[in-house]
Specification:
- This protein has 15 helices and 31 strands.
- The chain has an eight-stranded mixed β-sheet with strand order 8-7-9-6-10-12-25-28, sandwiched between helices. The chain has a seven-stranded mixed β-sheet with strand order 13-23-15-21-20-18-19, with no helix packed on it.
- α1 packs across α2, α7 packs parallel to α14 and α8 runs parallel beside α9.
- The chain is globular and about 75 Å long.
Length: 638
Amino acid sequence: MKRLILLAAAAGFGLYASAQTQLSLADEMRLARMINDGAKTMSASDVPALPSTSILFRVTDDAAIDALRAKGVKVLQQEGDVVIAEAPLCVISDACGVEGVTTAQLGRKRFMRNDLAVVATHVDQAHAGTDGETSLPNGFDGTGVIVGIVDSGLDPNHISFIDNDGNVRVKRFWDYTNAGREYTETTIPAFRTDDKYETHGTHVAGTAAGCFHGMPGADYSGVATGSDIVMAGIQGYESDFTGALRKILNYSIAQDKPAVVNLSWGSNDDGPHDGTDAFCRAIDNIAANDGIHVFIASGNEGDCNYGVYKELTEDDNVMRTFISNNNYTYSLIYSNTRLEGNLSLWGSTSDEYETYLDLIDLSNPDEPLYSMKLDATKRFVASGNTTPPSVESSANINRNCTEFNNVYSSSYMGGRITKSSLNGCYRAEIAVSLSTTSSKFAKYAVSVRAVGVPGQHIHGYMAMDSYYGIAGMSFSDKGKEGFTDSKGEGTLSDMACGKETITVGAIATRNDDFSIAGYGRLYEEETLGEPVSFSSWGHKLDGSLKPDVLAPGSVIYSAMSTPYVNANRSSLESDGNPIKAQYVDAANNRTQYWTMMGGTSMATPHMTGIAALWLQAKPTLTTDEIRDVLAHSCTKPE
């Protein structure tokens, strides 16, 4: 990562004073880095004249929106009290100070996260019109229901999406790589794909609604084989999701048909994970409408140690955990003796708690060499001339800590603790950049210590890198007594925490052929009938547990984008997307392909398709009623 030069330090001082209670610490530091880099943008629309980024505001009234426009903010969409916008970097500080703006968060890119599967969930019986013992009035295949796929690497002309009469089942396609351009049934046959370097969306769509049964010796069709399909090809910007959801809702209203929408994307960021952030609220505001039901992947970080959780008691009201490296540290910062990133601790109640950063000699972990107590002012301890991005005043940097300087060079650690305007809970925001020698890295570590009140739950979340979608740090007890280890709790994707959506995790229904490439990690064999190790989960701040349901997500065979195969034939194996089956369509002499993938991305469309079958039987089902059916019909893992 580029070291900040003097210009960046100068830009940081005084820049965020008016916005200090608006942007999170992680966002303030991201903004300072973007200003330093100048031309780097997170633009979700057309290329702007000034370096810009997407940003989400929560507002109290229309006057605030008018004031934002007057500051130079481009409003892309409004959903309830949430404004999805784009703003030049130079106006964000002023925009955050607009009267009526209650919160602001920089936009983020979200990341992509079946033959035996349909048997495991009895979809084959629903297709056949039986419950296994008695006959049903008819078979169910999603007829009369719209399946919406919001994804990347979509091939709408795959044979999986062509009906028996040769008609395209994809009724609309919105291409957000081309400003949301709309294609209809008459223009879709000439369209190829939104992204020839990706096939994730085609695989997801095939699981949810693929209808091709003609594969000799195998059936890789999906669940809602008779449904109408609409697709949105996106780049992962939050405005892509909200724009696509609104278009799908409007289309379902025009067609007078219920819609299920699949979002196999996510990002395990350091937000509240309770549905109160602006992006979750925007999704909820759309999903709360009658006739639309949104299903979101829980995430694939269940075994990555990105979350930590502890319930405080009368006898033990302290949580201590180490900030540690992980398998991705070197991938992000090219060093095994350095840590860099952001994290947050959230209290589950409005009670204030104390937070400390402790420098620990691992041979004597109960006696910190140095402790830094966080307060409402952003403060850091730093070595040398290192200046953390976005610090308002050099007076808030302690460069004279002998213990810290003896261990770390060109480093900093610090943060603040404030009451969040999102939910009224206290949030400790922490940023570190720690560099040392290999011998000292093995001997010393930084831990986070939270001292709260009995009955309070402390939730810790690592912030993911905004470009790669992974975190280079994790939580660990390092084998030390009295410290809390990460066991998967809290790894839930933050966009999967809304009140009006259904979150889907993954269960194993097959465990053969299970080497899946992805950031260098190979998934080991999983236990059939049990949650898959990578499936993310966690408690929300209100104590409720997510995901809502588990569906088949390991070793899933489904459709593969032909444009993707043609463009990447030499790297399919190394990309983790090997061709597992192919079929030459005699109608057009076009070769069709299928591949194998694993993840909650694969589990979510299976549940999306099942909901379409239920809606065929009862089109007026609400999302709460779907959740209730799940609670009374699913088998609970041991």
